[in-house]
Design brief:
With 342 residues, the protein is an all-alpha fold. It has a two-stranded antiparallel ribbon with strand order 1-2. Bound molecules: 2-acetamido-2-deoxy-beta-D-glucopyranose (NAG) (4 copies). InterPro entries: EF-hand-dom_pair (IPR011992), EF_Hand_1_Ca_BS (IPR018247), EF_hand_dom (IPR002048). Keywords: Calcium, Membrane, Transmembrane, Transmembrane helix. Pfam families: EF-hand_5 (PF13202). This is EF-hand domain-containing protein.
Length: 342
């Protein structure tokens, strides 16, 4: 096939473009070449709902993590009197600002980074093209690393008896939870951060959450643990179940659940635009979810849509891949790349 004469070179250009986009531009802003590269701040990475720009380059990710860690240590260790241990200084540390380092082309050669990273992304198969799936998988791995790193730090902070896992006694809900949910142990309306949530995360039931289990506890949307997925579904019901019968009737579904699902739902786009069809759509979806046709949604029946209600890291990894690839297509890079990319 003579379709793609210089696929690899063109693909490098494509990835270089992605790289700029990912590093420096919030989604939906106009792309400008040679914009200064920016690191994300810890605050952005930690704000719930706004943490979903996944770093593309592991070096950048490491910088962000180290910077986060410094801040974390300042916040947590200084207050309890211990100094953080000295670490080996990475080369970029000589720069007063890590951003100066990544913007210094002699030190941080973006073209070279792309060349190094490309074969790591282009793995299934290694054919000189980055596919949608490959980019999603790459994003997902980067995100997963970051999330696990933060969980590890969180465990260090809470693990008072240093046994490497968190017991329910050691666990205290984060401050923002107390503020936003008016956290109250006797309030039955919200189950997050309580013992039932804790128990559901405890896969082996030993009363202590290890790294995997505690990470699941913090990010139940990303879990493979069926007990925790069931808990999450029950929680979705509990929050919306106005008449406390343990399930959702059509009205409860329509007023609180449907609105959330339709944003993600793919088949809503086919009926999109016609306001009157939204009601039909709501009914259709309800019928589809109500597997036992009893006119109510049970926790079990929410399982198929739980990832629409709680998007997982994989969802965001895919979304970011979609975004990047759509930008590349917009900019009209080599058609043979595009057809492969999509
Ligand atoms: C960056 O790397 C590319 C390819 O290896 C090379 O052509 C270019 O001169 C390098 N830029 C700098 C400033 O070293
Ligand atoms: C928690 O809720 C109970 C009753 O629901 C109330 O008496 C108590 O004051 C609340 N505690 C806090 C800290 O808000
Ligand atoms: C959680 O598990 C512990 C130990 O198995 C048990 O004592 C406790 O009652 C459980 N709590 C809830 C809310 O299920
Ligand atoms: C944590 O415990 C679970 C259940 O026993 C196990 O599947 C998982 O591999 C453990 N994770 C780590 C990091 O040890």
């Amino acid at each position: 096939m003579a379709r793609c004469v210089v696929p690899v070179v063109a693909a490098y250009a494509t990835v270089a473009l992605m790289f700029f986009l990912l590093l420096s531009l919030p989604p939906r802003r106009q792309h400008r070449p040679h914009r200064r590269l920016k690191l994300r701040t810890a605050a952005i990475a930690r704000t719930p709902g706004d943490r979903h720009r996944i770093p593309f380059d592991p070096i950048i990710s490491e910088m962000e993590i180290i910077r986060d860690d410094r801040e974390w240590e300042r916040n947590h260790f200084v207050s309890i009197g211990g100094a953080p241990p000295a670490e080996p200084q990475p080369e970029w540390e000589k720069f007063t600002d890590a951003e100066d380092y990544i913007n210094d082309e002699d030190k941080f050669n973006v073209t070279d980074r792309i060349k190094i990273l490309f074969p790591k992304i282009d793995v299934s198969p290694q054919d000189g093209f980055i596919t949608h799936e490959e980019l999603t998988e790459w994003n997902f791995k980067q995100a997963e690393n970051e999330v696990l790193h933060r969980t590890r730090r969180d465990i260090e902070l809470r693990d008072k008896d240093h046994d490497g896992c968190i017991s329910f006694q050691e666990y205290e809900p984060p401050n923002w939870v107390r503020r936003t949910h008016d956290y109250n142990l006797t309030d039955e309306k919200v189950g997050w951060w309580k013992e039932e949530h804790f128990n559901a995360s405890d896969m082996d039931g030993n009363g202590c959450l290890n790294l995997t289990e505690f990470n699941d506890f913090l990010h139940p949307a990303d879990t493979n643990n069926p007990k925790l997925i069931e808990w999450l579904c029950r929680e979705e019901i509990r929050e919306r179940d106005k008449d406390d019968d343990g399930r959702l009737n059509y009205h409860e579904y329509l007023t609180s659940l449907f609105r959330l699902i339709r944003n993600y739902d793919e088949f809503s786009s086919s009926t999109h635009g016609a306001g009157s069809s939204s009601d039909t759509h709501a009914k259709q979806l309800f019928a589809q979810l109500d597997l036992d046709h009893d006119g109510f949604l049970s926790a079990n029946e929410l399982k198929p849509i739980i990832n629409d209600l709680h998007p997982s890291e994989r969802f965001f990894a895919k979304q970011q891949a979609d975004y990047v690839i759509s930008q590349v297509v917009d900019l009209g890079h080599s058609e043979c790349i595009n057809s492969k990319l999509i």
